[in-house]
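Usage

Read records sequentially. Each one opens with the input sequence:
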Amino acid sequence: MQIQRANGIVHSVSSPNSESTLEELRESALEHLLSLRVFRDDGTALFRASDGSDNLQYRNAWFRDNIHVIRGLMAIGYFSLVDKIWSGLFETLRKYENVMDNIISDPSSYSNNNCLPPRVVPETLERVPGDWTDTQEPQWLGELLSESAAWISGLRDETKANTYRRLYSKSAEYLIAIGCFDGLFSNAWEEEPLDVYTSNIAASLTGLKTAKQSGVFVPNHIIEYGEKKLEERLNPLCESSTRNLDLSLFWLVNVYNVVSKDMGDKIVSQLINGLGTQDVIQLDLGRPRYDGDVYPGLDDPDHNSLPPHSVPEGLWTMYWTSLARYYASRQQQEPYANALETAINLRVDGKSVEQYVLNSKGIYEPRNPLAWADAQLLEALK
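and closes with the structure output:
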């Protein structure tokens, strides 16, 4: 297998221990993110997933990706823009409040065609149909509940605050109605089979706990049931019935904070040692999202010359930023610097790409400079 490490595929940079380099990287990542923001007529903002150069559908706005962007901007103190993004997300919820009302009234009506939209046109908030599964609320709605509560409590506009508190409370009720702890959903990888995913359970549990602490009525037995389901998945560790290891498990340690330090160390150790073949590990390009992961090829402008899921193991760069964040939390400076430098080396033309994918010539090429990739880099740099 030929591995291309030149012509812009992998760049050499100075050590991330240099403060000037870190500041330049922050500015570069922020510049990429700001190029993807869309200011709406109502004064709110949403971020496109990308500029659409690799996939036109990525010019739309994902709840998932925008929450990643919020974390990245929070890491560098860009609070004024964070306020606009949260407002944009809650205005989207307001547009689809009737969907929440219907599902809360009749949970059995929940389906891929009757659920909250995971992605919208940023200018109009219209639902975007696509080739992906839509039923993925436990992941992004759980994160919205856990991370927007403090923002809502700080709103000075009482009318806006009351509206968003209503939507926040209704989001928790909706999450419970759809059976977030044992229903069948996709996880962060929305094209994957429906299953009960550990990362979804953890996101939902964190969100509902935060909602309860914020004054939303969440029955104790719901929290206790979620804790029980999570404990069952951690001993032994598995992400779903079809896979044990998945990059989404990093978020249990870095984002949701629902596991002990010892369990977090165990999860990360298993991800380091268990994801990817030895050949993949030696490439330093990233790791597959999970064992057996496959991804489309890169042989024409639309990347459709090979059928979907025909090329093995797209290597996801978020592995390195996630690993860097873990090492930072454990105050392990040298491993942190090494992981961060690897992530930096994989940037292309001043942008963090989502993954490296094998083309028909046996060369790994970068794919999808995405907002959430540089947002995760900003988190790792803080």
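Summary fields computed downstream for this record:
- The radius of gyration is 20 Å.
- Residues 41-261 form a domain with the Glycosyltransferase fold (CATH 1.50.10.10).
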